[in-house]
Amino acid sequence: MTAKPDLLSMTIDEMKSLMNSLDEDLYRGKQLFKWLHSGILSYDHMTNLPKKLIGKLDHNYIITNLKQLRLLQSADGHTRKYLYLLSDKNIIECVTMKYNYGTTLCLSTQVGCKMGCSFCASTTGGLIRDLTAGEMLAQVLHVNNALLSQEYLPIRGLVLMGSGEPLDNYKNTLKFLHLVHQPEGLNIGYRNITLSTCGLVPEIRGLAKEGININLAVSLHAPNDTLRKQIMKIAQAYSVKEVIDASRYYFDKTGRRVTFEYALIDGINDKLEHAKELGELLKGFPCHINIIPLNEVDHSDMKKSNENSLNVFIKTLELKGVNVTRRREMGLDIDGACGQLKASYMGAKGK
Predict the structure, then answer these.
(1) What is the pLDDT of residues 310-338, one digit of tens each?
(2) What's the pLDDT band for 351 if we cut at 50, 70, 90?
(3) 119: closest CA among 275, 262, 332?
(4) Which residues, 6+ apart, have CB-to-CB distance to 94 below 8 Å?
(5) Partner of 122 for a Cys bridge, out of 85, 163, 279, 316, CB 3.0 to 4.6 A?
(6) Nearest to 275 by CA among 232, 318, 233
(7) Torsion of CA 241, 244, 248, 251, to 10 degrees
(8) Tens digits of residue pLDDT in 209-257
(9) Cα(271)–Cα(27) distance, integer angstroms
(10) Is the pTM of the predicted complex or chain greater than 0.85?
(11) Strand-pair category, 79-85 with 91-99
(12) Of 106, 117, 198, 338, which residue is the catalytic one?
């Protein structure tokens, strides 16, 4: 049986074409798009759509719906983590981070992940399937509705850094980015969107040519191939040089400064020699290094570096003239790392 098309995955032009195929006025497509992207996900509230059209839509199409399984809030109130059930019974999660200027949502792009990074909780069960553009959008709409109902600041920024590798789901991710940017919809600026990748070189170069100029964050985590291969499966496919070259290409094409993420792992990649090598590698490249205290996960015996190692590593990079900051740790008390809440939920359910 063929699955019904999802209205949330459609652009305005696709909705206009849909109206044409249903023998309806084309402007109805824009009306429908605006209703959905304002967070109205039920036909009952779409007051300016004819009942006949609603009947056609309800019979032949779906609107992706997410069922909230769990919501956790950090003690300081700045971080909230949502666990959602999809229509096929798969589970995804996303996280909001509250700042003075608004709320940023970290969302998932796949169910699971096949990248195999040894320190990541979302990769333990491998890749189950890609999320559609509509399923990504649904995370934004559902969370936004939840925030606004409790008088929280609405979502102003997006980070594609949850479960999954966004560039491994390239087509759906790109369509999602176009959807959330639409002025008739959420109208989220590309400069307020960050995509995180473990370093899929051809896709980084492809993204640079798309003309959307979002922020790019590359999970590097090592200054050389030997070390990177120990902790990241993707390093078997692309060398550090190839990743850096692709990142330079992205900067040259978009003008957007690339961020390199570097999680410090005790005794593995946090030595003085590693900091010096990383500094030499990136010196002169107008980039930013985000030093991350490792978020420890149950399936790995890797531990985060101590404070002294963190401080020495950062200071060494600064002396090399590299722009570097330490990531603010948020949501540690609510399984903040991607994949952790799902893992704990599934573990408890299996008991």
Answers:
(1) 999 999 999 999 999 998 765 565 565 55
(2) very low
(3) 262
(4) 81, 82, 84, 105, 106, 107, 108, 139, 143, 162
(5) 163
(6) 318
(7) 170
(8) 999 999 999 999 999 999 999 999 999 999 999 999 999 999 999 999 9
(9) 61
(10) yes
(11) antiparallel
(12) 338
Token reading at 270: 């946090």
Q: Which of 24, 93, 165, 203 is catalytic?
A: 93
Structure tokens at 218: 């590359």
In the annotation, is 93 catalytic?
yes
Select from 196, 193, 103 the least CA-distant residue to 143: 103
Active site residue 338: yes
Cβ–Cβ < 8 Å for 143, 95: no
Q: Which amino acid is at 270?
A: D
SS3 assignment for the chain? CCCCCEHHHCCHHHHHHHHHHCCCCCHHHHHHHHHHHCCCCCHHHCCCCCHHHHHHHHHHCECCCCEEEEEEECCCCCEEEEEEECCCCCEEEEEEEEECCEEEEECCCEEECCCCCCCCHHHCCCEEEECCHHHHHHHHHHHHHHHHHCCCCCEEEEEECCCCCHHHHHHHHHHHHHHHHCCCCCCCCHHHEEEEECCCHHHHHHHHCCCCCCEEEEECCCCCHHHHHHHCHHHHCCCHHHHHHHHHHHHHHHCCCCEEEEEEECCCCCCHHHHHHHHHHHCCCCCEEEEEECCCCCCCCCCECCHHHHHHHHHHHHHCCCCEEECCCCCHHHCCCCCHHHHHHHHHHCC
